[in-house]
Amino acid sequence: MDKNDKLLRGFADIYNKTVWLNKIKMEKELKECTPSEVHCIEAIGNDADSNVTKLAESFFMTRGAISKLTKKLMNKGYIESYQKSDNRKEIYFKLTNQGQRIYQTHAELHKEFSIRDQPIFNQLTAKQMDTMINFVDDYNKHLDEEMKKQNLDN
């Protein structure tokens, strides 16, 4: 295995392990929602102007899949739709009180996980952290460009 493969495998392992560790607590605290529903609630809570198109782009899903997901969330009472007075065509979403409760619980869990993992980040120098952030940013930009190429080829 070359160093590139080792690094990518390491990222994948870190991701898989954090998902596994976080899953148990998330499922216990947010048992009434699926992970997709929780992340949709999070996205709507983070963006005051969430609509199907924005959510689809954010989750790399089709607009149809997002429409189904948001419909489920509306039926469960976690989000509601609205229209702006200056744009009667577009439908936006906002959290209900129930949705806000899920949003807050999810945020608190992420804070708890961040505190759990902070000791490993505390070992890094500022320069090491900057180098890692720059690498991740550059790699994400590269992947964005590759995704654009794929969309143009289809």
Report what the structure shows.
This protein is mainly alpha-helical and 154 residues long. The protein has two domains: 3-123, Winged helix-like DNA-binding domain superfamily/Winged helix DNA-binding domain (Arc Repressor Mutant, subunit A); 125-154. The chain is built from six helices and three strands, in the order ααβααββαα. The chain has a three-stranded antiparallel sheet with strand order 1-3-2. Strand 2 and strand 3 form a beta hairpin. Helix 1 (3-29) crosses helix 5, helix 2 (35-46) crosses helix 4 (63-75) and helix 2 (35-46) crosses helix 5 (97-122).
Q: Helices and strands in order, then pairings?
A:
Blueprint: H1 3-29, H2 35-46, E1 50-51, H3 52-59, H4 63-75, E2 79-84, E3 87-95, H5 97-122, H6 126-153
Antiparallel strand pairs: 1-3, 2-3
Helix pairs in contact: 1-5, 2-4, 2-5, 3-4
